[in-house]
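Consider the following input, taken from an annotated entry for LysR family transcriptional regulator (Candidatus Lactobacillus pullistercoris).
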Amino acid sequence: MDLTQVKCFLILSETLSFSKTADKLFISQSTVSKNIKQLEEELQVTLFDREHRQIKLTPTGRYFYEGMLKNYNQATNLINSLKDYEKQEKARVKLGYSNIPFEEYWIPLFLKMIKGMKIDLSINFLNLNSSPDMKKMLKDHEEDLILFQEDYFANDSEIGFIPLINKGYSLIAKKDDPIALNSFVDLEQLKAKNLIVWDMEPSLPSVSRLTSLINKKAPRSRIKKVSDSGIILTLVRSDLGYGLVNSTLYNRNDNDLSYIPVDTGIKMNYGFAYLKNTKSKQVIDRLIPMAQNAITLVKNAW
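Applying the prediction step yields:
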């Protein structure tokens, strides 16, 4: 069954005349008759009664007409909308990210998932070591979305946040360190230790809460704040202390290091920050399920 057969059938059902149907379709009466005959043979039913040079729909033909007319109109509307869709320009969205290890796993899959969508997504690396003002980047429209932890954007009514995952803190230790044998670490185990805490300038609210807890539960600990996670790894490998980082910074390729969950009671949302009055909100809403799917697929392996 092809589109020409369907057109012939629908118009003939309305005109009940081969000549009028032929005129409407700009084809010969014999072509109309041929298409109807082929359609009946393919469906193995009789669609029209032909008596005394008059035709009328059979009950089966009437049933087929009512169902086919609805589907044909839907198909026609879809084809027309496809043409309009094809003419549309791609929506442009700028995404800022810091390239933490977890992002190296899920972002490539995310980009593959949105490949067929009418979205021109540009991704831009944000160097956290230079303490970029990510709030200003959103407000100045340098970025439409920024992947980071929620508390950085706390108390800013102009910025919205869409959480993707929720994580706590991890302790980074060398694998041959006895503390690495623990499945989790209590802060009291870190008394009088050198602790290298990942932070930014100005200090993140979650880090302020963490340092207060350390001072309370792990007295005599020496806290050093560092904004470069690479430097934290170097200091840990040099036996100069233990790292304390957001668990999203875990890197499974650090074969000589262990990342051990720390019982702090502090949880942080990682996800998309965006300007609430952005013109790209509808496009962002289309991207979120793709990001969630990508994270779900890689989270267990990560």
